[in-house]
Design goal:
11 helices, globular, ABC transporter involved in vitamin B12 uptake, BtuC, mainly alpha
């Protein structure tokens, strides 16, 4: 059996693949968080609950309406994004201009309420969601067998992350969004409907979380607690990458997923804490994060 650094190659590459999959979810979730914080100034602790809602939306579409995985990839983010739009219009917008702590407390409370409602209705055991037939099975790469669905998750997350970054950083729409965060009255004077833009931005960030939830549904059982683990790690990813940094969230998300996967191979005891250890080191050396700008 081929060995790399004293580790069987299938084990090493298998853990790297698992790290990439986790990194894909970290990148998608931290990207949504970075958009909401960078453009709206809200620390959205409800992001994990909205990720869970995306998975449940896909499950409900399938079990109640017979709508499969591929349409759910589009419909679930739209439905959960619409819910996010309602949240922004009713409660979130009252926090603009206030201390970030108010947003953190409010969204933390919203997360508890949302998770509690789903737990009361569906329990905590979780429900299975089948991998679509087109992505079942595995591909022989020579050095390992790669499950097709897991390869799809990494590819889809990478495409969506890069597309989002290009829209925000390289298009006139993104320029208007960034300008609105700096000087909303001036942008409004040029005929841009800033409140609507802000609402749609929050909905888009929520939609990214829901998209990640749909991708996660066939891998994890669909249950009300599935966002709880991710949200702690994702906040660490956002801090390491730099609060509000879109590109930083993408690179750090995938990078830390790989680091976590390698840690499980060479020092499994530290795999649950390595992300937070990296966060401590980065904050000591660069408090604004790897890609953040000093205040």
């Amino acid at each position: 059996m081929m060995m790399i650094l004293g580790v069987p190659a299938p084990l090493l590459f298998g853990q790297l693949l698992l790290g990439l999959i986790n990194g894909a979810f970290y990148a998608l979730l931290s990207l949504g968080l970075a958009i909401i914080f960078g453009l709206l100034g809200i620390i959205n602790f409800a992001h994990g609950a909205l990720f869970m809602m995306g998975a449940f939306a896909a499950w409900m579409l399938l079990n109640y309406f017979g709508i499969g995985y591929w349409p759910a990839l589009i419909l679930a983010p739209i439905l959960v994004g619409a819910f996010g739009l309602l949240l922004e219009r009713t409660v979130i917008r009252r926090l603009y201009g206030l201390d970030h702590l108010y947003g953190l407390l409010l969204t933390f409370g919203l997360a508890l309420v949302i998770e509690g409602l789903f737990r009361n209705e569906y329990g905590s055991s979780g429900m299975p969601y089948q991998i679509p037939p087109q992505l079942q099975g595995a591909t022989n790469l020579g050095f390992m067998f790669m499950p097709n669905y897991r390869g799809w998750v990494v590819f889809a997350a990478l495409v969506v992350c890069l597309a989002t970054w290009l829209i925000i950083d390289k298009t006139p729409l993104g320029a208007r969004l960034r300008a609105a965060t700096e000087n909303a009255p001036l942008v409004q004077a040029f005929g841009v409907n800033v409140p609507r833009m802000v609402s749609l931005t929050y909905a888009a960030g929520v939609g990214l979380a829901a998209f990640a939830g749909v991708l996660a549904a066939p891998i994890d059982s669909v249950n009300p607690n599935m966002g709880s683990y991710f949200i702690n790690v994702v906040f660490a990813v956002v801090v390491i990458g730099g609060m509000g940094s879109i590109l930083g969230s993408i690179i750090t998300g995938f990078g830390l997923g790989i680091v976590e996967g390698l840690t499980k191979v060479f020092y499994p005891q530290a795999s649950a804490t390595v992300v937070f250890l990296v966060m401590v080191i980065v904050l000591l050396v660069r408090p604004a994060g790897l890609f953040g700008k000093a205040a």
